[in-house]
Design a protein that fits this description.
nine-stranded mixed beta sheet; eight-stranded antiparallel beta sheet; binds ligand PPE; D-amino Acid Aminotransferase, Chain A, domain 2
């Protein structure tokens, strides 16, 4: 899927033309993968484009920086303001959702693993990005393979950091799943319990109860939190507990959540149809409610939206 270019990218405090936003090939992060990033979406509402949970994403970005020992030169307010300004400066097609990618990285100047003497840079790009796992996937559900790769162990990586280094694991799992003819990977933790997808958190529904694992081996997902909030509002029972592989196979419904993936139903796991092998009833209800929230059609959650 080709990237839809927009006009400007914010790079270290300046708005530069999309094609001019370049860095040196010896930038430290390119070699050692210590860069903190975020994925944020903005949706067109009646009152214009609104960024969904901007402050929560920025807080997580700065937490990733803290965990990864990246001394971000820009503070919370500056990063929020830059994202808003970037969306104002770029021209997006009406009625499309925009994906925002802030990244804090180690720049050029020093080689070798030790990075604390290297300069730190930040950039923010935004572009039009449709359904991450396809429009068809959003409606009919996707096919998932439980990965042969375990999610990064808590003993060696920091799952709560949205740091580039964590994504080699995601990338290998995703490629394995695609090569095997599936749409997405579902990764277990090193003990064998469900951790998360390559870029999403995971939910199942059993007997009307919504179940999602704790964040022990996963990113603290903002979409997962939004879905829990929405489900609570709808009076759905929620359990936050570990899920085993066999429980996925016999779940009534399953879905992925993520900023990019939004709420994507899972219709099959490892050749077993989930429930009726299509988007489940509660999944659809939560999906509709989620889209009402992000598109600004539910005043109860207007606190989540930052208008541009
Ligand atoms: N787990 C992982 C590993 C992950 O990358 C994401 C987001 C989530 C869970 C869900 O987090 P949240 O977006 O806060 O609900 N993945 C981002 C990157 C996807 C990409 O391919 O790049 C995203 O959804 O923006």
């Amino acid at each position: 899927m080709a990237l839809k270019e927009s006009q400007y990218i914010w790079l270290d405090g300046e708005f530069v033309a999309w094609k001019e936003a370049k860095i040196h090939v010896l930038s430290h992060s390119l070699h050692y993968a210590n860069s903190a990033f975020e994925g944020v979406r903005a949706y067109p509402t009646d009152k214009g484009l609104a960024i969904f949970r901007l402050k929560d994403h920025t807080r997580r970005l700065l937490n990733t920086c803290k965990m990864s020992l990246l001394n971000c030169p820009y503070d919370f307010d500056a990063l929020n303001a830059a994202q808003i300004e970037l969306l104002r400066k770029n021209v997006f097609a009406p009625k499309t959702s925009v994906y925002i990618r802030p990244i804090v990285f180690v720049g050029y100047g020093v080689m070798g693993v030790y990075h604390l003497n290297s300069p730190i840079s930040a950039a923010i790009a935004a572009w039009e990005w449709g359904a991450y796992l396809g429009d068809e996937g959003l409606e009919n559900g996707i096919r998932v393979k439980i990965s042969s790769w375990a999610r990064n162990s808590v003993k060696s990586m920091m799952g709560k950091a949205k740091v580039a280094a964590n994504y080699l694991n995601s990338q290998m799992a995703k490629c394995e799943a695609i090569e095997a003819g599936y749409d997405e990977a579902l990764l277990l933790d090193s003990e064998g319990f469900i951790a998360e997808g390559s870029g999403e958190c995971f939910f199942i529904v059993r007997d009307g109860v919504l179940i999602t694992p704790p964040s022990d081996n996963a990113l603290e997902s903002i979409t997962q939190d939004s879905v829990i909030n929405i489900a609570r509002e709808l009076g759905v029972s929620i359990e936050r507990r570990r899920i085993t592989r066999d429980e996925v196979y016999i779940a009534d419904e399953a879905f992925f959540t993520g900023t990019a993936a939004e709420i994507t139903p899972v219709r099959e796991a490892d050749a077993r149809p989930i429930g009726e092998g299509k988007r489940g009833e509660l999944t659809q209800k939560l999906q509709e409610a989620y889209f009402d929230v992000v598109y600004g059609r539910n005043d109860k959650f207007s606190r989540f939206l930052t208008l541009i």
